Amino acid sequence: MEFGLRRAQGPDAGLYGARAAMIGGCVGTSNVLAGQMFDVPVMGTHAHSWIMSFPDEYTAFRTYAEMYPDNCTLLVDTYDTLKSGVPNAIRVFREFKDSEKPLNKYGIRLDSGDLAYLSKEARKMLDDAGFPEATICASNDLDEFLLHDLKMQGAAIDSWGVGTNLITSKDCPSFGGVYKLAAIQNEEGEFVPKIKISENTEKITNPGNKTIYRIYEKKSGKIKADLICFADEVIDTEQDLLLFDPIETWKKTKLSGGTYTVREILVPVFKNGECIYKSPVLKEIATYCRAEKDTLWDETKRLFYPHRVYVDLSKKLYDVKKITAGSDEYDRLKEDLLIMKIIVLAGGLSPERDVSLLSGAGICKTLREMGHQAFLLDVFFGLPYDSDKLEEIFDRPDGGLEISKGISTSVPDLGALRKSRPDQSPSEIGPNVIELCQMADITFMALHGSIGENGKLQATFDNLGIKYTGPNSLGCTLSMNKLVTKQIFKTSGVPTPRGTSLTVKTKDTRLDELGYYLPLVVKPCSNGSSIGVYICHTEEDYYDAIHKSFDIDNTDEVVIEPFIKGREFACGILAGKALPLVEIVPKDGLFDYANKYQAGGASEICPPISLDAETQELIQRAGERAFEALRMDVYSRADFIVSDADGEFYCLEMNALPGMTAASLLPKAAKAAGYEYSELCEAIIQESMKARY
Fold first, then answer.
1. Where is average pLDDT lowest: 102-116, 243-257, 651-665?
2. Into how many domains does the chain fold?
3. CATH number, domain with residue 321
4. CATH number, domain at 369?
5. 582 has which bridge partners?
6. Of 62, 253, 348, 514, which shows the fewest CB atoms inside 10 Å?
7. H helices of 411-538, where?
8. CA dist., res. 261 & res. 558, Å (int)
């Protein structure tokens, strides 16, 4: 219900705000004049002053019920909601139930206090008194976010009265708009396109006389996009249709002929100076609005991180725009559609080798589908090839994808891998890797662990002038060492468990000498994918875990920290901004290597439903602080745990190059934020170019 009249900026705002609210989906308004003018339902309850004008609350309730037996909603929070208001309301309901004139529609309204708690208690009192049909209405500075939280808390509320936050421009006190000349009609009656140029690509106007088509998926009836075209363009729905973002042109999708429908949505209002449009009545507009909302995907309508409905340009309009913009601007715009030569670098001598290859294969395949000349390359094995013919590999139809074989349940035998390389070079960089990366427009870093994530390869590329994706060398170096990460977190106000490290010389130090007590977590200082991570409940477990962790890839440092029992969450970061959280629920025990990468090993929930919105927000801000503190750029992923004991959250570590497989957490978080996998890959490239080149 619309309750905003008293806070509206003047009488007209109250009237036409109520009208807009009804179009938007409200079922009624408290504005009596708006109800009369627009023929819409009038709804509401009495004020607190009504009750205060009577000798007591019961008399006020009974009088109101006598006057409005068909719509009797009693405001119960004037004095004491549960001790006075609800009991008096029940007393009136009971008296009228047994009378000759029973109430046809009745309930209570809550306007203050803890609405979740009060509604649940009131619901119980009403049901116990024999009035399960009595409704509970709530008001009190409600907005969409508070409604969302109240529903998550199981509030027993049947209807909502929204006022201030619906009727006033609370978060946007001014409305800005501009109009620009788009075309001039010449003597022959033809429209000549005109354009305004700006240094901001988004402000470059769309030239020409245009119309808008709404594109629907034929099967579901849902909106795919709006398409701005020239007025004389006709879309043949039996032909394939390419849709692409006019600014970020790498965001594109192809609709197969016969799978979509179109509707022209531009309706003329004035023609030759004469109004030719007749406005429908309010109820018709509201019905149309509800029908259009039903064509939106559920992912578009959610409050947090909704998907966007794209507004694209037709290919013809885009081409004219480029030409009209002039040669310099044309060249700049043309770069948006540039086909790039990309080396996707994966594999290497890391326990996470298989994960890296699978991530790289997914990235490479996607980039190739987008039109880029991408090639998957193992950084350790390289590509023994005639140096004069290296350029040919960008045109190879296989794209190098054959080197990815999937992820085993066990960690790769790195010793056997070293022995299998034909040249037996001690270098971790294989034949022609540097040469191919130099030939590429950019190298997409799909590596995990080892030189790919500890900053060494990034530093090498920096020195050689090779462009690459992902965080810079410093950010990688700092995030790779878990003890260094902890120290930086502590000085930057990022909550993290305390911890210490053990070396080969100190690994047999007694726990009581270290000041640590069981249970503990033992893990290599510079590994990922939960490889070599052990939870220790006994001293025997602890010493066994220490020795096993040191055996992982010949690590020289092991970290120990208190074991925190709780729920795990991943916080992806893209361009310094947190993505929606992902809750991780392992199928069995620890979220280890097998559970991470095997189908069915864990469930990922995004956004989480077990955390309130405020805590999610706090974790996201902590993730951004961690990202900044480690001097990172482009993207990464912070891992958090929320303690079952006290509800506090802790940042466990930062992953410089998180997994990009189908089961990986970052792509899932990005999807919840509106990025399809292809868009995420291209966004990583674009953000990397912005950050360093």
1. 243-257
2. 5
3. 3.20.140.10
4. 3.40.50.20
5. 570
6. 514
7. 414-420, 433-439, 450-453, 456-464, 473-480, 482-492, 511-514
8. 60
Calculate the CA 575 to chain-centre distance. 13
52 and 116 inside one domain = yes
Q: Is 579 helix (H, G, I), strand (E, B) or coil?
A: strand
* Within-domain flag for 473: no
Domain range for 378 is 341-468
Identity of residue 98: D
Ramachandran angles phi, psi of 432, nearest 5°: 65, 10
CATH number at residue 545: 3.30.1490.20
Domain final position from 510, 538, 562: 562
How many of the other CB atoms lie within 10 Å of CB of 451?
A: 20
Rounded Cα–Cα distance for residues 605 and 582 (Å): 6
Taking Cα atoms as reference points, which of 609, 519, 621 lies closest to residue 567? 609
Higher pLDDT: 158 or 544? It is 158
Give yes or no for residue 528 having a pLDDT over 60.
no
Q: Tell me whether residue 173 is in a domain.
A: no
Which residue reads 């920290």 in tokens? 561
- Structure tokens belonging to residue 314: 């037709």
Of 103-112, 238-247, 595-604, minimum mean pLDDT range: 595-604
630/489 same-domain check: yes
Dist CA 558 CA 575 (whole Å): 31
> On the CB side of 447, how many CA atoms lie within 13 Å of its CA?
32
pLDDT one-digit tens code per residue, 628-662? 999 999 999 999 999 999 999 999 999 999 999 87
> Is the domain of 231 the same as that of 199?
yes
Q: Closest Cα partner for 596 from 366, 428, 408? A: 408
Task: Give residue 352's pLDDT band: very low, low, confident or very high (50, 70, 90).
Answer: confident
Q: What is the largest CA-CA distance in the chain?
A: 101
Helix (H, G, I), strand (E, B), or coil: what is residue 482?
helix
- pLDDT value at position 330? 42
Scanning the structure block, which residue is given the tokens 């900044």? 628
Provide φ and ψ at 595, rounded to 5°: -65, -30
Concatenate the DSSP letters of all residues of 354-404 into one string: HHHHHHHHHHHHHHHHTT-EEEEEETTT-----GGGGGGGGG-TTTTGGG-
C-alpha to C-alpha distance for 525 and 624, rounded to whole angstroms: 22
Torsion angles phi and psi, residue 440, rounded to 5: -75, 155
In the block, tokens 């992912």 appear at 299
User: Shortest CA distance to 348 belongs to which of 450, 438, 427, 422?
Assistant: 450
Beta carbons of 194 and 182 less than 8 angstroms apart: yes
Clarify whether residues 541 and 452 are in a common domain: no
DSSP category for residue 306: P
Q: Is the pLDDT of residue 597 over 60?
A: no
User: Which pLDDT does position 130 carry in this prediction?
Assistant: 95
> Where on the phi/psi map is residue 169: left (φ > 0), alpha (ψ -120 to 50), or beta?
beta
* 366 plus 451 within the same structural domain: yes
pLDDT of 387 strictly over 90? no
Asked if 253 and 199 sit in the same domain, the reply is yes
